[in-house]
Amino acid sequence: MISQKAKYALRALVSLAQAPKGEPVFISDIAEQQSIPKKFLEQILLDLKRHGIVVSRRGKFGGYQLLKDPEEITFLSILRLVDGPIAPLPCLSQIAYRRCDDCVSEGDCEIRRVFAEVAAATRSVLDKRTIADAVRGDADLTVGRATPRRKTRSRYASLT
After folding, report:
1. DSSP letter string over 44-96?
2. Contact status, residue 75 vs residue 14, Cβ threshold 8 Å
3. What is residue 111's three-state secondary structure?
4. Confidence check: pLDDT of 148 > 60
5. Distance between CA atoms of residues 86 and 72, nearest Å
6. Which domains does the chain have, with CATH numbers?
């Protein structure tokens, strides 16, 4: 699960990407449009500014703008910036690897093999999706649609 801070960061970036090119957007406008607490948004935008993703200008015609092209800002880069490692297990992290405390052998770990596949698929999707995709609505969203489970006979079925 991603943090609320990461969701707010992504929503703020979408809001900035939707603004006319070259026109800064006030924090208060983003906060209102995206239902983000203003003080929290200020912290988020400062982090994004420190990492070279947005730029701010002061004054009457001030506000925030994207410094990077929305096509270059991936969901993966923002999630890593805001939340840190996204791997479901520490032994699968690409930026903060740590052997699991209860691990006997990573090579023989059945759990690690399954979650390695999950992590790779997640990284692949998040690295391909950009803020520009979100603005265009390009994502093939299947949220809320249940995927039929494969019917397999469990070896434990006879025990119930």
Report:
1. HHHHHHHTTSEEEE-STT-EEEESS-GGG-BHHHHHHHHH----SSGGG-SSS
2. no
3. helix
4. no
5. 19
6. 4-70 (1.10.10.10)
